[in-house]
Amino acid sequence: MTSSSRSDDWFTPRFPLLIAGAVFLVAALALFYPMLSGQFLGGQDQIVAGYAFRALAEQGMHQSGHIPQWNPYIFGGMPLWAVPGHFDVFYPTAWLRWIVRADTALTLAFFIHFIVAGIAMYALLRALRVSWTGSVVGGLAYELTGAVASQMNPGHDGKLFAAALAPFALLALLRAIRGGRRGYFGWFALVIGLVMLTPHYLAAYYILVACGLFTLWLVFLDPERPATMNPIVTLACAAAAVVVGLGVAGVELIPVQHMVAYTARGAGGESLGYAYASSWGMAPVELMSIILPQFNGLDQFYWGPNFFKTDTPYMGAVIFALAILGFGAVKRRKLLLPLGVIGILFLLVSWGGYSPFYHLWILMPKMGQFRAPGLAFFIVALVGCVFAGFGVDRLFDGTSTTRSIYTIFGVLGSIALLGVVGALQGLAEGLAGPAKVPEVVANAPELTAGSARLLAVIIVGAVIVILVRRGILRGLAAALLLAAIVIGDNWSILQKFAPWFPPASTVYADDPFMMLMEKSPLPYRVYSPASPDNPDPQQHQQFASLTLYAGARLMVNGIPMLLGYHGMEDRFFDALLGGKNVWQYQLAPHMWDLFAVKYVALARNADSIPGYHRIAGPMQLSDMVEGPREGTLFERDSAIQWVRVVPAAAKLADDQIPQTVASTAFALNSYVVFSDTATVNAPPLASTAPLPAPSNVQAKLTAWAPGAMSVALTGSDPQTSYLVVAENWYPDWHATVDGKDVTPLRGDGSLLTVPLPAGAKSVTLTYDIAAYGTGKLVTLISLILVVVVLGIDRIGVRKTDG
What we know:
Elements: H1 16-32, E1 40-41, H2 44-64, E2 70-71, E3 78-79, H3 102-127, H4 132-143, H5 146-149, H6 157-178, H7 184-196, H8 201-220, H9 231-248, H10 250-259, H11 274-277, H12 317-327, H13 333-350, H14 358-361, H15 377-397, H16 402-420, H17 423-432, H18 437-442, H19 444-469, H20 475-494, E4 500-501, H21 504-507, H22 512-517, E5 525-527, H23 537-546, H24 571-576, H25 589-594, E6 597-603, E7 612-621, E8 629-636, E9 643-646, E10 648-652, H26 657-662, E11 671-675, E12 698-705, E13 708-714, E14 721-728, E15 733-737, E16 740-742, E17 745-747, E18 751-756, E19 762-767, H27 770-801
Parallel strand pairs: 5-6, 10-11
Antiparallel strand pairs: 1-4, 2-3, 6-8, 7-8, 9-14, 12-13, 13-19, 14-18, 15-16, 15-19, 17-18
Helix pairs in contact: 1-3, 1-4, 1-20, 3-4, 3-6, 4-15, 4-20, 6-7, 6-8, 7-9, 7-27, 8-9, 8-13, 9-27, 10-27, 12-15, 12-16, 13-15, 16-19, 19-20
């Protein structure tokens, strides 16, 4: 049957974009309806830390009118946002925190981007001349594909935001190059800027690479490229748009690039190299999860090669079938090359260290600083959803055969049937290997149930597709049923990945220990053990059993912690405490002294702690983050010293400082130790040297706020002494001594230290990122350039129309 004889199947409603948006809204509400009753989406990373960062930003925005720069509440103090892997500080969703609570803003940001993902894919497909129904189905497919939508569960909003915008980037290039509208390079720059502000830089990197490949195809191989196009000029415009796009994000990118050297991803840090960068890939053994996610196990039943997996690559069985059908679209054959190359490339990338290809990929600039290449699968899903749109059109234009449809759905149905009868269980056990067999066995009921679900979807989906192909279902009815099966299929999986919680005021309510600690005026710190990531399972379990407040739990309540949850904390702090995610010196009394630990919170009925006394517990505590547990709270016997004056300095190799400072033999209040590479005039630390006399200068903290301190000094010392502060040094701390600028130093491994001349009376300390001002200027200039390009294009269109 020809397309002309079935023209009624090319259904387009009166308001196509509005109706499509309504469909995407309904699909999003199917997962997000709990937000209407005040609940918030608490993905794993959000519930333990992400919400805390946003709440602190919201508080600063309302109290001071700007976003705070310094976060004193975790890891001994660190920048709140000018480090890789933070949160949506300058991305448009941050504006929501001006008008609604942080938990509501967080949830709305996820919800909005579900709809954005659908609209972006719809717009791309329409630009590729796909029918309205095919574009809506493709948009739904992308909105609800697991690689995008299941980011709800881990709480990776940056990944979701970037993925949602990706089709817009391809659309802008298509309009700019194939359509000959260079003004769309302005839109492309704006999209790239937004992607960089998400701020998931790895996702942005993947989008840039995909866009680069698509651009080369559009310029040199696209059969529809304009005959008058100048390739050199077009490529220059595309490159300039990327530069301007990076400039749009300059307010964030420039400070982050300035600060990255002081994180674990800076030179000498622990989060570098092939082993790090290739970890958390989507192993080839997990490919079955694209159509049968229970094969590898969902969430707690996951048995794959990674330590755990909180999302899913599930594309949707019906969408997968339509994508295969779309791959054979003859009239779309010219698009198979660019889309196929992009899809295959990012499938290989997503495998990470499970494929030798990653040894080549890591040669790409900056790749050694990123990990979790499994994220790249969202590009594969994007390509698959475009093909699914093509597949829908093949149902309508008569180019698909009933035999091919039966074959595709038959194969998928056979896989499901094998799972139902238990035949896939043996395959899973064989692929998993002996060590994983118990986990695979535990997942067996889930695999059987998931296979039954898949079989039901395949049967219903096949019936709908066949009826559409035969022309029995047409127009609106065909569109509605195709949309319904896509939503129902993917919703049945994704609803397992939507962790809903009551409002944050309930989730993070004070417990009795917090109420006691909050009576003490800030600043002070609380120590709660953190489980080390080391090969000693006994030590890991010992610390885990003592952990009372994990992650950034206390940060939400405005209580500073010694440790916390972030991943990009100060690498000098990590080294001082004995290594990132190991922190072998976290129990050393000197570390508690250095960082002014006033309270120690331990799980269960803990023994006594030297220098501390029990003030509460053991008692049962319970909240919605930590769950029920027994806890004991200790308070320091003597006063903490947030600021103290040390009479002398010495030098030591960086790798020797942590063990030296952690040792009880170290004279903590006699020396401050600097790196042997520092420009400080100090002798090497010698154990045989007599201890210097205590300093006559006493320091008193007279004012404290996040990123700002004032210190009064009494007494006098004829020689230089050193003010040591219980907060981490970063290069953007600024100090004045008696009104004169002084350069702060990094002492005792990571602490903020200020040299004091004889007779000094006062010190002020402020944290202000110098690169922030430069970044704001670059962003402003870049936005002006975007507006100019869009304005010139608009004037040109009006002249042409006139």
